[in-house]
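Thread: quick sanity check before group meeting

JM: Hey all, I'm pulling together slides for Thursday and realized we never actually wrote out the predicted structure for the chain we discussed last week. Dropping the sequence here so it's in one place. If anyone has concerns about the input, flag it before I start.
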Amino acid sequence: MLELRKCPKCGEVYDPPTQMCTVDGTPLTAVRTLVGKVLDDRYRLDRWIGAGAMGTVYSATHLRINRRCAIKVLNPNLPGSALRRFEQEAIAACQVDHPNAVQVTDSGVTPERLAYLVMEFVEGRLLRELIPPGGMDYRRVVGLVTQICDVIEIAPPPELRLAASVSVTAFSDIAVPVVANDPAIRVPLPADVIVSPPVNRVLSVA
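JM (edit): ok, ran it. Output follows.
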């Protein structure tokens, strides 16, 4: 993990975004962080946004032009095959030009062997936050998935489409896996609506 927080009182360690110790309520201190680090003399990592299996995403600033961006840093503990996949993702995502796609503007590997992907910063909300307790109406689900499919349709050749789908739209990297794998998210469908296998594959594409 690139980020780690620790309770100075009891010694318990936590991953972000936890800020208070669940044992004694003491504010946590960062014992491992990339926040404040500058990548390749250009990108300053300003704030932790989120983390997944492959890497951690930060809000960052392009220092030369004073522009806000988002940067995904690959977990350095992953095997070499992960770096190759990460590089494929960068190449594929740069070829996607669509209003619903997050634009990828740069990538690189620092002298410390930190691989990163630079994207436009997009304000928004997680899909989980938009879903009411009873589940999201199926018509809205279809609308969201249709937008994702519109981007995947124009993605690069088939061998790169999976990599591209990881970075397209605000839904794909976080929300689509949640919809596919989290049983707590219920999508109530009327009796006359049939969910076919292709739809299931679309939901699990990322």
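AS: nice. The radius of gyration is 19 Å. The longest strand covers residues 43-51.
JM: adding both to the slides.
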